[in-house]
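Following up on my earlier thread - several people asked me to post the actual chain instead of describing it. Fair enough. Here it is, all 255 residues.
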Amino acid sequence: MFDRKSTCALGVLAALTTWPSPAEAADLTIDRATTYQTIEGFGFFGGADVWWSSASTVLDQAWTAQVIDDLGISMWRNEYYAAGTPQDATWDKQRPVVQALVNYASQRGVKLKIILTAWSPPASMKCLSNDGTTCNSSPPTRPADTKGGNILDPAMRSDLAAWLIAGAQMYHDAGADLYAVSFQNEPLFKEDYNSCVYKQDAYAKTLAAIGPTIKAAFPNLKLFGSENMLGTECGKSPGTAFDPYWYTANIMNLP
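Reply from S.P.:
Thanks for posting it. Predicted structure:
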């Protein structure tokens, strides 16, 4: 059985592997004088093995050299794990991997851009919710752990900002200043693993609330996101269930 995301992925794969017949061929003219976007780098996520493997497995010097010299990465995205509940990794396990990558990249003249992403804030900042926006009860009922979705308690936005700043400080203290931070991976989805759901308006309001605090602590740190899929159901065009530009429109329309 496939879940919604894997089914959509198969649909995309089928579309990509269906090639036009000769009768559908068309001439293509490329205007090199027109720039539409700038590609800032090439990168990937994680360590030499899954984070829940051993510390000796995730840190591999041969792998570190290979991803810089052979794969040619210049960007690296990593998960920020919340303390207090069982997690795939701790900072003590991640730190040596971070430092090995940054140090080797520096030796090779590569300015590695690190993006730190939260899959979930700490469970102590979350609450159970039926509508995806407000907590079910007052005082809020906190989930037992960071898995299974739920939402950020809107009253805890300042705590979220402080937690993200603490994460940026950990990297700074390890000699690995962050390029950007994202406060939520795939905010649209409730998952069995670390996850937290933000409806689009809640995402924009959270960003507006935490952004100034984060920028005051780390002025050069970029706020990255939203990290979301393009639609809610396969076969439906953008705008049929949400706004035409998904989370982006809510962000841009919030004064």
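Helices lie at 4-16, 55-58, 61-71, 91-107, 157-173, 200-217, 247-252. That should answer part of your original question.
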